[in-house]
Design a protein that fits this description.
This protein has 102 residues and is mainly alpha-helical. The chain contains 5 helices and no strands.
């Protein structure tokens, strides 16, 4: 590949940096960032706006667990275990009229 081909490849890769960062960070608006990047990225200002937007907010992949007032922590999806069984147990407790923790 000649120099022009390498430059074109580099520009294409750089063009999708905002989308790549948004997806990697788990940004909830990654598709909107992609739309801004594709539609307005060629202006430079649109690309910069998409880049800044992709970096806003917390890193959704590494967001901390929620700390509740009673000291317990909110479990992540992988820590929930058998959700259907837990829901059945909760329904049984509710149907029996007992209060959890009482």
């Amino acid at each position: 590949m000649d120099l022009g081909g390498w430059i074109l490849l580099l520009l294409v890769v750089l063009y999708f940096v905002p989308l790549t960062l948004a997806v990697w960070r788990g940004h909830p608006r990654a598709m909107a960032i992609m739309a801004v990047s594709i539609a307005f990225g060629w202006t430079g200002v649109g690309w910069l706006a998409a880049l800044v937007w992709s970096m806003t907010g917390p890193n959704y992949r590494q967001a901390p667990k929620t700390q509740h007032l009673d000291g317990t922590q909110h479990l992540t999806e992988t820590q929930h275990g058998d959700r259907p069984q837990q829901l059945d147990n909760a329904q049984a407790v509710h149907d029996d009229g007992a209060r959890p923790g009482a």
